[in-house]
Design goal:
The structure is a homodimer. Helices cover 45% and strands 13% of the residues of chain A. Chain A is built from 17 helices and 20 strands. Chain A is globular and about 80 Å long. At the A-B interface, α1, α8, α9, α10 and α11 of A face α1, α8, α9, α10 and α11 of B. Chains A, B: Its EC number is 2.1.1.-.
């Protein structure tokens, strides 16, 4: 449809593709994992030391095997999701080491915060999937925290969850635990029950942890998002066109490796590359350049006929204020209008990924709900228009007490949870709460009502036993 | 392009059009102005009492005369604007009786507030045109306030301005004053130097003031936005499809009248119809239903080959908080992506049009700047991609000190005026300012630097003399 957002022509996307291939041929890409290098070699790829040089034919061959769409099963089958095509899933924030609380203070995140996010996701009307490392629990040993997080992800929420791509072992632990939950590892080998985030190390590298994780995930039938996060002007070129070519080279290499490990492996084309802030030298995720890239990323993924991941409720603000609202809304609306399939960071992020905020989580949920309503098509049938009714009400008439208004108002109109729609007097009488304060009051009500979803007690015991045995190994 | 926002098919838009025509045939539309009724009668329209019943042929004939695009000249020719096609103009908030200040208090607006908005618009990087009645000055007599506002609009800002459609006399005063500014009324008869907002009175009515204003504006060559503001479920049907048919009937009637007064009169197809809030019974302008209608309005205007007006930075929040940021950003991005040409209410609105806020004005300006950057196409040439440079930097390299980064970073990246992009420590040291507080501090700096734009002293004297003579008449 007519849209002022830039639509890339097929020729432009081909140019980006060709540039990526030329780049891989000229510079190669550093693969910091012995098994991954072996896989490339075995399949006839040119390898020099740690550098791999994929060719057009090799990449095209791999791309031809990528599924356009796949499902991720939840332990509550009603909550299974579909990734690809017109479908989309909203996921929470990811990887934040800190919590910013209602007073604006920043503190290290703890395991209890992780659990609280699992509870919020379980009870969310708008978030479709549980995340991974919504916060990094600073109170747990780094070597085993992934076990506790995976346990909470499975027990506290019955939506599909994200995997733990912290290392080969982290992935294998996640697979074992999913196997317990689904009654055997063989049950999930051809059935995605999680999705995991594999990031490149820009420019033109992949770390050993990420490569090992990717290989084990794919080997066990679990989908990967292969994503790049370039900071334009620092870890990538200053132009967005250059960023697109560079990130595309990285993503295509990861996706190619996945297809070499297992043909037809479900993968997602991902990027959240953005601009460097020129004053601080830091990454800006509220930057409009990221919203441009969100749209280009979705277009490139469609060009390759595969699902995309980008965007979310992204902001550089350090508090759920007007900046957080504006930046998150712009990014989220761009993400969903642009056709992104996997929306990580939909809720909760503050300060360029540094922190999660419970109040911001609820605020972002409302934005998710609003955007869902915006993109929901309306019915333009004779019945929906109902000319006879409008003619009957006539000039100067009123519709407030019309039976049709009563009948349809709840299905036609979005009912906000947090947004203030009163007048100034009523707002003043209610204490002039700003939306972050409204969110704070709703938060405690919601957590008070949380109920842990049912699970077979045997499975719960086995999961706990697995975690304990691994901790004591 | 691929977009999850609903694209109406030609068949769906034809259905809306046909429904509007059927409605006008069945119910008619009440025209509360003697001259307007005479014009319709004289042109062979069926008129019964105050009701007019336009036919398909009569409306189509009028529509065929509407220009697709037109220019509005500013007294500073560098600031003239174009309305229609891919071009858009951003205008400030309109019609608010109150100011909500930085403390959240609401007070009656005064003429000095109006003047302050003129100064902000004059110095705005993002607002293209001066508005009309950004606030309603409660300290001036209602009968003559339009004279003071028009004088300020012309003197304090050299961008194109909006006209005063308060009454026939209000319009004629505006024409006289524009005539003084342009060296004679004959100079503007075929040259738009203003645009004015003509609203229907839903359902299916036009007031005497609006009709008289429309006739005089068109007669003097000045463009009109013909707009409808239906509250779905109160002054219009509960379904958006019904609202579309009803508002279309109203808008087409106004546009038809304009073409009967003067063939080829520049007009704009406008709507900001939205939903009723089910809890308060009031109009919600932060509602996602309005953002849907923004898109449909732009599509219907393109269907008729004429410019559109909708949207803006719209919110129900009573303070520039996270809600204001989120709602305004959603509406503004939808407006600009959707292809709207005339964006009234881009900056400053709070509380469902009840108030303007200076801090919100600056916050919305930042959103306008970000959206402009988002929709600015990028260059995907070989030079912009620059594969040799990326290959040379190579795996693990850095771009921060690369000459190209220095050369292009200011043109490639949007530089925010208000948005915080520091870390938590720096934010804390700076006093943990939220964006509304940052806006407050920028506001006084900006107003302190304001300089009144040059104008011929003779013109300024004549304008003041006109205002005085009319006040003493």
């Amino acid at each position: 449809m007519y849209d002022r957002m830039q639509e890339l022509s097929s020729a432009q996307m081909t140019k980006v593709h060709d540039a990526s291939m030329e780049l891989l041929g000229k510079a190669g890409i550093v693969i910091n994992d012995t098994e991954a290098l072996e896989i490339f070699k075995k399949n006839g790829f040119k390898v020099e030391g740690k550098k791999v040089f994929p060719t057009e034919t090799q990449v095209r061959d791999a791309l031809s095997k990528v599924p356009e769409k796949f499902a991720i099963e939840a332990r509550n089958p009603e909550k299974s999701v579909s990734v690809g095509g017109d479908d989309f899933v909203l996921l929470p924030g990811y990887g934040a080491p800190y919590i910013i609380d209602a007073s604006g203070d920043q503190r290290e995140a703890r395991m209890e915060d992780y659990d609280t996010f699992c509870k919020l996701i379980h009870t969310s009307k708008h978030i479709d999937m549980n995340g991974w490392m919504m916060v990094e629990p600073g109170d747990l040993p780094a070597a085993t925290a992934h076990l506790d997080m995976t346990l909470s992800s499975i027990l506290l929420c019955d939506k599909p969850f994200m995997g733990s791509p912290v290392s080969r072992q982290g992935v294998l632990d996640g697979i074992e635990m999913a196997g317990i939950a689904w009654g055997g590892k063989d049950k999930i080998m051809d059935k995605p029950v999680s999705i995991s985030l594999i990031n490149s190390l820009s420019p033109l590298q992949f770390s050993e942890e990420m490569l090992g994780s990717l290989i084990e995930l794919v080997r066990h039938g679990q989908p990967c998002i292969v994503a790049s996060l370039i900071m334009a002007g620092a870890s990538g070129p200053v132009t967005l066109a250059g960023v697109m070519a560079l990130q595309n080279a990285e993503i295509l290499t990861g996706i190619t490796l996945a297809q070499l490990v297992r043909e037809g492996a479900p993968v997602v084309y991902g990027s959240t590359s953005s601009a460097m802030d020129m004053k601080t030298g830091g990454l800006s995720i509220g930057a409009p350049e990221l919203s441009k890239n969100i749209n280009y990323t979705a277009q490139m993924a469609r060009f390759y006929n595969m699902p995309s991941r980008s965007g979310g409720g992204l902001t550089d603000a350090l508090y759920p204020d007007g900046q957080a609202g504006a930046e998150s809304a712009l990014a989220l609306l761009n993400t969903l209008r642009g056709g992104v399939n996997c929306v990580l960071h939909s809720c909760g992020i503050l300060g360029s990924y540094i922190a999660m905020s419970f109040e911001k989580f609820l605020m972002d949920e409302e934005i998710c709900g609003m955007v869902r309503q915006m993109i929901k098509p309306i019915d333009i049938s004779d019945e929906a228009i109902d000319i006879d009714m409008i003619a009957e009400v006539g000039p100067g008439g009123q519709y407030l007490t019309h039976p049709k208004t009563f009948k349809l108002c709840r299905s036609e109109f979005y009912m906000p949870d947090l947004m203030v729609r009163t007048n100034h007097d009523a707002w003043t009488k209610a204490g002039r709460l700003k939306i972050d304060e409204v969110a704070g009051s709703k938060l405690s009500q919601r957590l008070a009502k949380y109920e842990k979803p049912d699970i077979d007690p045997g499975i719960e015991k086995d999961l706990a036993a697995y975690v304990n045995s691994r901790k004591n190994a």
